[in-house]
Write a structure and sequence with these properties.
alpha+beta; Aminopeptidase; 8 strands; 5 helices; 29% strand; globular; 8-stranded mixed β-sheet
Amino acid sequence: MNTCTPRNKTAEYRIEPLDSTRHRRDGFTCESQALTDYLQRQARREMEARASACFVLVPLDDTGRIAGFYTLSAAEIATACLPEAMRRRMPRYHALPATLLGRLARDESFRGQRIGDRLMQDALARAFAGSAEVGSIAMITDAKDEHAAAFYREFGFAQLTGNRLFLPMTEIVHLLGRRGAK
């Protein structure tokens, strides 16, 4: 569980796994109707099936309210798609394990509070920590548009194929250190 205190704000937040008995999914609305629908209708079922893990950022003064969320799941990267310099350092398998950042969204009412940054930093830290238990060479994500791709690039993600972006675990550890994460 990660507690966040925003700059120049009095609110504090905590990131925790989605709990459908406590978190009010029906009150969440973001810019993307598809992401709103996902959290409201699909996230719980995917968690129960262990197809993905959903984490929510909640204000400590109303822990049932969801300010933002992200999902992580297992994935793989075709070794041939990796940049040559990275591919040379990897085992010679057809595909290598990765962590998929499937979805990330912030409730519209929390605009301007850097919720996306908090969610991303937690997702990176959680993926890096998990890679010590279950191998993962990188975090990958599929940017839904150029605005999303620009957000991911701010964290060092680079294009892998099409709209798929990636960030090697070796870069995540350095990024987390620069941003003061544990």
